[in-house]
Amino acid sequence: MKFSIKVASLFVLFIFIAYAHPLFGDKAERAVPPPEAVRHEQTDFDENAGYPLPVTGYESYIGQPISAYTAKHGEPVRIGKAYGDSEWWTFGTTSADYIQIGVKDDRIQSLYILGNKIEAGMYTIGMTQENVLEEGYLARNFELAAGDTTYALALSKEQKERTPLIQFENNSFVILLFDAGTKTVYGMYFLSNEALLDLGYYPVVSETAYENGQDDWERDAAADEENIQQMKSIVSILRERRGLPLLQESEALKTAAGELIPSEDDINDFTATFTLSDQRIAKKLAEVAPDTRTAYFFDDDCYSVPTFFLKQLDIEVLFADYLTQYAVAGNDHYQLVLFGE
User: Fold this and answer.
1) One domain, residues 93 and 177
2) Is the residue at 292 inside a domain?
3) I need a labelling partner for 294 at 20 to 30 A (CA). Which of 4, 53, 94, 318 fits?
4) What positions does the domain CAP-associated occupy (predicted)?
5) What is the pLDDT of residues 268-283, one digit of tens each?
6) What is the 3-state secondary structure (H, E, C) of the chain?
7) pLDDT score at 298
8) Model confidence over 256-266: pLDDT tens digits?
9) Residues 218, 224, 230: CA angle, nearest 5 degrees
10) What domain range includes position 277?
């Protein structure tokens, strides 16, 4: 009996030692790295690892003759004037096939894509940010060359989340445009280095500032009309993408917009403050559409419609479900859109 008790006691002791060893064993094997080591490890992480990415999609058209695109995709539905000596070539008219291409000296400088059936490469419309991250890390700092000068860009936290930038090996980039409502990519903007810098959207943080020469860019009535056509197309596509009914053009709102937009002779440093003030626009809308809900937005800074939508990320009025009609007016200084119930 005593022998059995001794055997049982030894067995219990053996089990205790076996289970207790991981708890009281070699602490050095389980030592947690000090905070300094963790911070150092994070600091050493290279967020630009893997950039620039190989060329596999529509970024390959950047710098190519426009004929390289038309040979494969056919002729555009419209060719319109842009600033300076550049043009907009528009292909497609719906949310499935819409793309407009910036062309200068017969070479492609940018591709603005809203068509969700266009297979542009590794990134596609409808992607979530999680989908995008599966393709690679999103960086906040970039270097790019324009002419003989290298410039550095630094994205803000909001830009990294809402308009992340991807760099490719052929001196091109793509901006992924995220819809604030659906949290998915609603469009993609492929650009050459120079075209990206011309946007003036991402801060240049290098010692050498970039001069885009906007003061020398020339626009005329044809370019203004092209901007109006683009505004109509993009407004319609973005509403369609949200499942909202298309807006109808209103002659009354069109007349009001034309009366609000100042003529070339009336434009001065105070125009935006007084001529296109909130009070004046609201008063005009009340005259042409009394006892109904109205809305508007206008721009006095951007030289292109894609740039306008890039800088004005949260135009929630655009997606109001009670709106049924609209009108667009513009000139080389302003773009105005009026909405009515």
Assistant:
1) yes
2) yes
3) 94
4) 62-202
5) 656 555 667 788 889 9
6) CHHHHHHHHHHHHHHHHHHHHHHHCCHHHHCCCCHHHHHHHHHCCCCCCCCCECCCCHHHHCCCEHHHHHHHHCCCCEEEECCCCEEEEEECCCCCCCEEEEEECCEEEEEEECCCCCCCCCCCCCCEHHHHHHHCCCCCEEEEEECCEEEEEECCHHHHHHCCEEEECCCEEEEEEECCCCCEEEEEEEEEHHHHHHHCCCCECCCCCCCCCHHHCCCCHHHHHHHHHHHHHHHHHHHHHCCCCCCEECHHHHHHHHHHCCCHHHCCCCHHHHCCCHHHHHHHHHHHCCCCCEEEEEECCCCCHHHHHHHCCCCHHHHCCCCCEEEEEECCCCEEEEEEC
7) 80
8) 998 888 776 66
9) 120
10) 221-340
Q: How far is it, in rounded angstroms, from Cα 185 to Cα 72? A: 25
Name the one residue in this structure whose structure tokens are 């319609």.
Answer: 236
Q: How would you classify the pairing of strands 78-81 and 335-340?
A: unpaired
pTM of the entire structure?
0.81
Specify which residues 296 forms β-bridges with. 338
Q: What does the pLDDT look like over 128-145, one tens digit per residue?
A: 999 998 887 789 999 999
Single-letter amino acid, residue 238: L
In three-state secondary structure terms, 219 is coil
Of 4-18, 89-103, 133-147, 243-257, the one with minimum mean pLDDT is 4-18
| 108 & 30 share domain | no
Query: Where does the pLDDT of residue 54 fall: very low under 50, low under 70, confident under 90, or very high at 90 and above?
Result: very high
Strand bridging mode 248-249 / 325-330? parallel
